[in-house]
Every structure is written in C-alpha cells, then in structure tokens.
Amino acid sequence: LLPTPLFPGLLLSLERKMKKEHHHHQNSQLLPPLKRRLILSRAAAVILVFSLGYVVGILTSSPRASVSSSPDTQLLLQLNTVPSPPNRPTDVCNDSPKEGKEEQDQLQQLQPPTTTKKRPQSASPPPPHDFFRFRTQCAPALPQDEILPTLLDRVYNGTSPYAGFPPAHAAGLLRKRRLRGWGSTAPVFRELIESVRPRTIVEVGTFLGASALHMANLTSGRLGALILCLDDFRGWPGFRRPPRANKADLFKDLADVNGDVTLMYQFMQNVAAAGEEGRVLPVPFSTAAGLAALCEWGVYGDLVEVDAGHDFHSAWQDINMAWAVLRPGGVMFGHDYHNGADNRGVRRAVDLFARSKGLRVRPNGQHWVLQPPKPHH
Q1: How far apart are CA 257 and CA 59, in angstroms?
Q2: How many helices (H) and strands (E) are present in the chain, helices listed first?
C-alpha cells in the first residue's frame, strides 16, 4: 500500500533511533527487550498511519459527478441541441393565412438542424446555471375587492397617487394628452378581452399608457377591469434621440427635471385626461421587482401583457415571472414577436418558454399569445 521510496526512509529512521539508544547504553551490547519492543511498536504505528492515509487518498480521488446531470441543464441541452424529427408539425399555429408562410419560414430558422455533430469525449460539460429557476408558486390569491386597497397601501402608503395631481412643480411641464405606443390598438386586445373577460389586467411595460388606456376603453362599463401598469418610467437609454438621422425625435417634448424624464407624470396625466384614475394604477418599479411583489402579495391577472425589454434576457425574465402571476385559466400575450431581433430577442424567449412548458404560441400580427391548455374532463 505504501510507495516504495517510503520504506528506506522509515528503516533509516529506525536505524538511527537504535544507534542513539545504543549510545546511551554503552555497557550493553544489545538493547533491552522492553526498549526494542517500544521502538518497533512506534515504527509499526507510523507505517500504519501512512498506509491509511495513502488508501484514503486513492479512494477520494475518484471523478466528481458531472454537472450536466442537472435536470435544468439537460432540458436546456434538449431544447437547443436535439434535432427535430423530419416533417414534424410546428408548435405554432397562425390565424393569418397571409402571414403564415413568412412566419413558418422564420420559425424553421429556429428549429435545430436534422443532424448534430457528435460532442467529443473530451469536451467539458456545460456550466450549471439558473436558466429555468423562477418562482412558480405565489401567495394565495387576494379577493378582487382587496387588490386595489392592498396596492395603494403597499405602494402609496394608503393614498391614491392621483390625489392632488398634478403637483405644482410638474403642472406646467405636462401636455394634456400625450400618447405614443406601438401596436397599442391591435385587434388582439379586443379579441382577448372579449374571450377572457378579465377583472384584473397586469401590463408589464406601459411607457405612456397607450395600450393600457385602450384596454380600459374596451373594458369600460359593467366589466370595469382593474389595470395594473408595471414600469420604472425611465424609458430606455437615449430614447429621446431618434434611432436614425432621418427620423424625427418623437419624445423631445418630454421634460427633463434634474434627470427625471417625467414619464410617470405624463402617464398619470394621460390616465387623468381619460377619466380612468380609479382603475388604471401605475406600479413604478422595474418589471422584475414589480412582478415579484405581486407574486408575494397574491395579486394575479386574468390577462397579462408583456411588452417591456426587447432583448432575450429581459424578455425571458419577464415572461417567466409574469407566468407566475397569471390566474388559472387566464391568457398571457405580448408584443414584438416579429422584429429585427427575431431569434435573438423576444421571439426566442417566447418560443423557448413555450417549448419548456409544453405550450403553443399563437402569433397575431406583431403579437404573440400563450394560453395554458384547458384541463381534460
């Protein structure tokens, strides 16, 4: 069990020990039996300790388990590397025949190739990650009549943000009505509202409130849905500057007060001008913080719209966190399914989420719709 070079060292040490003892007992030609036994027992103990250490070292040097055995990692590998069977029907249905071929062609680009290159045996396993680890269980749902009071208490210290609005320092900076959105009045809004008949709507990303006020108009009357608008009301870096030199600056009229771009004030002014202060409420936090709070408080939406960040990671986070606050039987939808980013932005996040949950994506113009499967009876 011991390496060969270890024995000469032990024997040399033993020989020196015996010579030293012999020097102290010059009158005796041989060591006393008791001393000899003591020296030999010590040497045996040293050999035993080294042997045990060597064996333990061998046993503990076995390879560690590969991180690729993680269920999350395996799912990600399956979604990104496993080839689809030939002639597999797409998971996306399209209600628009005119756009069908173009969308099908774009979706084909997202499908993995029919053959994959075999991973070399020496390749390192993929690193572990939290790609799929989002909270899926939230607090028990609040009764409908407690949602608005709870939010006013938790976010605005029990008072309405519209009380005394606008404040004196901002009144002269606001336009009476300043709306701007993208796809904010698309037919998908009316279709889903008539189908779901929501009592609570959660909008993730609202900007100036164009789509929120359109949904408020569609739910006016006896439906009277409460609309919660999550946004940090900061816009995006450089949003005042036109993306191209030949395009007009659409937001140069929005005032900037010591770094405050006054988006929330203008949003509230738009809501007040529409007379919807009682049921369109800004929730002025980042989408992640706002959705986490709704989950913690038990606030769910019958209809959830996701239209905030357009990059993949922002959209992926928003979609996963928004799904947790979707009431059973509700519908989640969003914008920017077809844009310049396609498989690098919102569309990639939507498709990956749908495949990981076993859902279908239903494109509707520039919008996407996800609906949980109905339970079988």
Answers
A1: 68
A2: 12, 7
CATH code, domain with 240: 3.40.50.150
Is residue 290 a contact partner of residue 203, using CB atoms and an 8 Å limit? no
Q: Are 288 and 231 contacting, i.e. CB atoms less than 8 angstroms apart?
A: no
Q: Which helix (H) or strand (E) holds 346?
A: helix 346-357
Give per-residue pLDDT as tens, 32-73.
Answer: 666 667 777 777 777 877 777 776 666 655 444 343 444 544
Distance, in Å, from the CA atom of 269 to the CA atom of 373, rounded to the nearest integer, reads 39
In a domain? residue 281? yes
Q: Are 83 and 114 in contact (CB under 8 A)?
A: yes
DSSP-derived 3-state class of residue 282: strand
- Asked if the structure places residue 356 within a domain, the reply is yes
β 326-334/280-283 pair status? unpaired
**How far is CA 151 from each of CA 157, 321, 341, 346, rounded to the nearest angstrom?**
9, 18, 35, 29
In a domain, 153, yes or no: yes
Task: Report the mean per-residue pLDDT for the chain.
Answer: 75
362 forms bridges with which residues in the sheet?
369
Query: Which domain does 26 fall in, by range?
Result: 6-59
- How many other CB atoms are there within 10 angstroms of residue 316's CB atom? 21
- Dihedral, 153, 263, 369, 219 alpha carbons, nearest 10: 60
The domain boundary, picked from 59, 80, 104, lies at 59
CB 336 within 8 A of CB 346: yes
Contact 338, 103 (CB under 8 A): yes
According to DSSP, the β-strands at 361-364 and 367-370 are: antiparallel
Neighbours of 4 (CB within 10 A): 6
pLDDT at site 114: 43
In degrees and rounded to multiples of 5, residue 227 shows phi and psi of -120, 115
- Tally the domains of the chain: 2
Asked if residue 260 and residue 354 are part of one domain, the reply reads yes
What pTM does this model have?
0.65
Q: What is the predicted pLDDT for the residue at 95?
A: 41
